[in-house]
Design brief:
The protein is mostly helical. The chain has one domain (43-151). The protein has helices at residues 3-65, 71-91, 97-119, 124-151. Helix 1 (3-65) packs antiparallel against helix 2 and helix 2 packs antiparallel against helix 3. The protein starts with a helix and ends with a helix.
């Protein structure tokens, strides 16, 4: 093979491989950026729903027992709580242990709120404790996901 032939083949390979490699790298970067954006939206959405859920857990029972809200309002707030719980369940991965623990905690909070309304007993201490456990568990999940966003995963 002559040096001119080697040069021509090298140039041909570079002309073909160069753009293909550029396309491959660009696709990887676009996919990573889209995934990070979607993950960030998921984090924001989950954080917002959990904040609303925790607010209901902390305030409905004490407000009801202080006669700040009516029985109907308390029942309606529990309905909102149930809706938030179902939304959180849809946002979480049922195959991850820490996600399952968060679902268990929010379900427990819902039960406590319902029992408090039905029994007409304020159990603010129990509700505050479960709310704090929800916050702690959510922080673990959100921190891990935020680390993945920072890495570009």
């Amino acid at each position: 093979m002559t040096p001119e032939m080697v040069t021509a083949i090298t140039a041909l390979v570079a002309v073909i491989v160069g753009p293909l490699l550029s396309i491959y790298v660009a696709r990887k970067q676009i996919n990573a950026a889209a995934l990070s954006t979607n993950r960030q939206e998921w984090i924001n959405n989950l954080r917002g729903v959990l904040a609303e859920l925790i607010t209901i857990v902390r305030h409905v029972s004490p407000a009801f027992h202080a006669n700040s809200i009516t029985n109907q309002d308390a029942i309606a707030k529990h309905g909102e709580l149930t809706e938030k719980i179902e939304l959180v369940k849809l946002l979480l991965n049922p195959k991850e242990a820490d996600h399952l623990e968060l679902v268990r905690l929010i379900s427990s909070a819902s039960t406590l709120v319902k029992e408090s309304i039905n029994a007409r007993q304020a159990n603010a201490l129990q509700l505050e404790q479960v709310a704090e456990r929800i916050v702690t568990q959510a922080q673990i999940i959100l921190k891990r996901e935020w680390e993945r966003v920072k890495k570009g995963e």
